[in-house]
Design goal:
This protein is 79% helix and 0% strand. The chain is built from two helices and no strands.
Length: 62
Amino acid sequence: MEKLTLLLPKTTVEMMHLLARTEGRTMGAIVQEMALDRYMQQMMSSQRTSETEVEASEVQEA
């Protein structure tokens, strides 16, 4: 584990506390899940972009 200090707007922190309390989880778990979700979205987005570029180049070659 690494220690991290975040400076976030008050409303963001309140939302994170609310999520943590309602789900019975720690703030660290909430932040980790958000980071993983964001990372997976980027990976899926870049994969779709790559697939589209391959399809476009195949159409141009035909």
